[in-house]
Amino acid sequence: MKSCLLPWLFSLFAVSCHAVESLPLAVYTPETSKLFRKYVEPASGVVSYILETRVAANQQSLYFTQKSMTEDGRFIVFDVSGGDRRNQKTFALADLLKDEVRPLEIRGSIPFLDTESALLYWFESGGFYKLNLRADAPAKEKLCEIPAQLKAEGTNVSGYATHVTLTPDRAQVFMDARVDDRFIQGMLDIKTGRFEKWGEESVCVNHGQVNPVNGRLALCAHETRWTGTDKVEHRIQNIDGVYPRLLLVEPNGKRRVVPPMNNYATHEYWADDGLGFYYCSHGKEYGVIYYDLATGQQRRIAPVHAAHATMTRDRRYFTYDNSVGPWYRGCAWQVGFYNAETKKEVFLYAERPAFTTKDKPSKLHPDPHPQFVCGDKYIICTINRGDGRMDLSVTPVAPLAEKTR
Question: CA 120, CA 273: separation in Å to the nearest integer?
Fold first, then answer.
């Protein structure tokens, strides 16, 4: 009987060992990681976690249209600056599996983090690159050159993409490049390096972002002000009485200005399902405004005073920031959370001190730029310390939903 049982027991032991080896390693969270310190906002009691481990004087989240954290919660990509870097931003990485922070020493455009694959994509002067964050020894890989077709358009090619966005299949990247004083939009095929020009404008059009489910449609913005090569500053002008901020761009020169509610719009962003986009507006119908692609209808979906805003995939919750007092680059800010079901809001940060003074505006874009990340589990944003430095903040969403229930 014993001899019959032994093979079975050895087999069971082998299967059990294999199962243990296959178990995923535990990933720390901002709540449990040694990298973060707990912070309680006095005015609201909201709990956030500040990235305390430093690799630079300033540590700030990516732009609000980009995701700073992977879906599995392991990686946070953020900007670093200050000290020896001065106003030059590079990227850094918090790895919550290894529970460590390290500089990436990469300098380039505002990057795109594929939150599922943990691949980081960006432009720099030498071309388009990616970095596999999950690799044992991550090393940047050049995917293609800056396209020759674009270089042939003029003398000086710059600003390849305001913030990088890729098509759903990750095969192409949308570009809103500046060539001298022309502003050219189109799609770069990553594999072939060929550029498909969609069109161009003689005024500054930037902040391009391809639709997350439709690689043949992009949302761009007429910039509020820009300076030409002749050093003359240009400001946005109404077209036939319409504030022309919102621009839908397609191939073959097809484009359309969307007249915004209140005849004002700022900081637009695609909805995750690609069925529409939303933006912030001031005026009688102030708040976050949603534009439906199918119907062309617009409606207010969050009555909050906001400069930048993002919403969860189910559109139940919103996070936003707003300047406190007169706006300038480096002013005081607040960061809020709005529950669209209960129509209640709470502040993550009621007021963070100014980063600099109005007579010395910052070149580091020290706005909070709050964004939902990690399957809408957290909100990541930038806050000013009050001592001339910036911090990266992570706030759990579940307690915010409970506070606004």
Answer: 22
- 112: pLDDT strictly greater than 90: yes
**Residue 110 DSSP symbol:** B
CB atoms within 10 A of CB 204: 21
Structure tokens at 271: 């909805």
pLDDT tens readout for residues 27-45: 999 999 999 999 999 999 9
Q: How many CA atoms lie within 13 A of 297 on its CB side?
A: 5
Quick one: tokens of 101? Answer: 């922070």
Q: Which residue has tokens 């307690």?
A: 399
- Block residue for tokens 């990340």: 373
* Strands, sheet with 287-292, edge to edge from the N-terminal-most edge strand: 266-270, 276-281, 287-292, 298-302
* The predicted structure's pLDDT at residue 84: 73
* pLDDT-based confidence at residue 105 (cuts at 50, 70, 90): confident
Question: What does the pLDDT read at residue 11?
Answer: 45
Please give the pLDDT value at position 362. 95
Task: Report yes or no: 179 and 157 within 8 Å, Cβ to Cβ.
Answer: yes
User: Could you say which DSSP state residue 242 is in?
Assistant: B
Amino acid at position 159, single letter: G
Average per-residue pLDDT for the chain = 93
Q: Are strands 75-81 and 218-222 parallel, antiparallel or unpaired?
A: unpaired
Per-residue pLDDT at 98 exceeds 90 = yes
- Compute the Cα dihedral for 272, 369, 222, 151 and give only its sign: negative
Contact assessment for residue 260 and residue 278, using Cβ atoms and an 8 Å cutoff: no
3-class DSSP state of 199: strand
What are the φ and ψ backbone dihedral angles of 47, each rounded to 5 degrees?
A: -100, 130
Distance (Å, whole) CA 350 – CA 129: 39
Cα 319 to Cα 174: distance, rounded to the nearest angstrom: 26
Q: What was the pLDDT predicted at 86? A: 74
3-state secondary structure of 349: strand
